[in-house]
Design goal:
Protein name: Ammonium transporter
Keywords: Ammonia transport, Membrane, Transmembrane, Transmembrane helix, Transport
Structural class: mainly alpha
CATH superfamily of the largest domain: Ammonium transporter AmtB like domains
GO molecular function: ammonium channel activity
Organism: Punica granatum
Strand content: under 5%
Number of domains: 2
GO cellular component, one term: plasma membrane
Number of helices: 20
Radius of gyration: 24 Å
Distance between the termini: 74 Å
Order of helices and strands: HHEEHHHHHHHHHHHHHHHHHH
CATH topology of the largest domain: Ammonium transporter fold
Shape: globular
């Protein structure tokens, strides 16, 4: 005889809050970590993008990030999650299905001692930030309507392939033993390659913008960057899927590597350009965060420092020196240099993970007793397991090649498809005007210094010339407002 409560996990009674398999501490940490990652995007990257661009692009840049966050969530719960982590369909993709089903959501997740609902939320914020990172390469010229189409298409046909192949237990690269602790491949290499590819198809910014593109608010940019950095506590600390010792190690390694990378970049800027650049330091921060991501919980602290030194110098070299010499890099207008900060740093992190991965730490993270997988080349040489070490490097390289190939192909096909319906790039007059032409809104309502504030249905109820009777001069004289920029 069936009961009305049979759909509950393990026949959990309605007067019970938690099934026996759930660990409340792990569940609480996983939800907290996911929220920290979500705050990296909203408001972190919303603020960072909105402030690091020219004033006329502040609203558009911030809104591209905000839209992507919302659109990804809806696509994720409807089909994206189960394409990435559902039942096996083919070696690199799951069976598409809804995730919004109580019977499914309240079961134990595929990893960790918490419900699938927590896993869906946790994995969503990673998918969302990947699309937002891609947006960084396209700021200042992509048609917003084209971006609205790009987000669900790229999530469906590109992100899910990488996530299933590398992170899902049934994925083919996961089965081979690839190490991608928290997204060096799935998120950063993917977003760097996809952003660069999409930037090629969309085309460059307006000539004036490309020649001079100063931030409109460096202090606000630092606020967004700070949220990004601190939010990485959840980014890497949440991936062991438990509140255990590996999470603690991953968090500490993350911040050590990031600080080292920032300082390395800063020193190089001083040595070669004579001045300590705030924007440069921010780039060094980002490359450090990206580089440590595939390795955070499987390397020792000294290795994290070495990785920070390399992530602060190698992407610096590719961005500051190599970029000017390589024809292809000069042809593509990558607004936020995501190719260097994410594709180069992500590739570097993946290779260094294959070299520095400590087998004992790998066993803690993967919860396996297998010495044939997850052993860095450095330890293979030390322990006489040279073939295993070289095998790990080979798997890491294979993962890099796979991610690059998938994102070059799918991103190109998506861009070609979208431009059949809407232009990928804004019209020239819109490129000259910016936010006001695209959204009918501007980031800064300033009067004086040649700026005009015009009434709009998007402005506040009491726009200029529309004061309530109890506000402003009583004699009907003109209200004069000025502000210095």
């Amino acid at each position: 005889m069936t009961s009305q409560y049979d759909w509950l996990p393990e026949n959990l009674r309605p007067d019970q809050a938690n099934p026996d398999w759930m660990n409340k501490a792990d569940n609480a940490w996983q939800l907290t970590a996911a929220t920290l990652v979500g705050m990296q995007s909203v408001p972190g990257l919303v603020i960072l993008y909105g402030s690091i661009v020219k004033k006329k692009w502040a609203v558009n840049s911030a809104f591209m990030a905000l839209y992507a966050f919302a659109a990804v969530l809806i696509c994720w719960v409807l089909w994206g999650y189960r394409l990435s982590f559902g039942d096996k369909f083919i070696h690199f993709l799951g069976v598409p299905n809804f995730a919004l089903n109580e019977e499914y959501l309240l079961k134990q997740g595929f990893a960790g001692k918490f419900p699938t609902a927590t896993m869906v939320y946790f994995q969503f914020v990673f998918a969302a930030i990947t699309l937002i990172l891609i947006a960084g390469a396209l700021l200042g010229r992509m048609n917003f309507h084209a971006w609205m189409l790009f987000v669900p298409l790229w999530l469906t046909f590109s992100y899910t392939i990488g996530a299933y192949s590398i992170w899902c237990p049934d994925g083919w690269l996961a089965g081979m033993g690839i190490i991608d602790y928290s997204g060096g491949y799935v998120i950063h290499l993917s977003s760097g390659v996809a952003g660069f590819t999409a930037a090629y198809w969309v085309g460059p910014r307006a000539t004036k913008d490309k020649e001079r593109f100063p931030p409109n608010n460096i202090l606000l940019m630092l606020a967004g960057a700070g949220m990004l950095w601190m939010g990485w506590t959840g980014f890497n600390g949440g991936d062991p899927y438990n509140a255990g010792i590996d999470a603690s190690l991953a968090v500490l390694n993350t911040h050590v590597c990031t600080a080292t990378s920032l300082l390395t970049w800063l020193v190089l800027d001083i040595l070669f350009f004579g001045k300590p650049s705030v924007i440069g330091a921010t780039q060094g921060m980002i490359t450090g965060l990206v580089c440590i991501t595939p390795a955070a919980g499987v390397v020792q602290g000294w290795a994290a420092i070495i990785m920070g030194m390399m992530s602060g110098s190698i992407p610096w070299y590719t961005m500051m020196v190599l970029h000017k010499k390589v024809w292809l890099l000069r042809q593509v207008d990558d607004t936020m240099a995501v190719f260097h900060t994410h594709a180069v740093a992500g590739t570097l992190g993946g290779l260094l993970t294959g070299f520095f991965a400590e087998p004992k730490l790998s066993r803690i993270f993967y919860l396996v007793d297998n010495w044939q997988h997850y052993i860095g080349l450095a330890y293979g040489l030390q322990n006489g397991r040279v073939s295993a070490g070289f095998k790990q490097i080979g798997i890491q390289v294979l993962g890099i090649v796979f991610v690059i190939a998938v994102n070059l192909t799918t991103t190109s096909l998506i861009c070609v498809f979208i431009r059949l319906f809407v232009p990928l790039r804004l019209a020239e007059d819109e490129l000259q005007i910016g936010d006001d032409a695209i959204h009918g809104e501007e980031a800064y309502a300033l009067w004086g210094d040649g700026e005009k504030f015009e009434t709009s249905k998007h402005n506040s109820v009491y726009g200029v010339g529309d004061f309530p009777s109890n506000v402003g001069p009583k004699d009907g004289s003109e209200v004069q407002m000025t502000a210095s920029v």
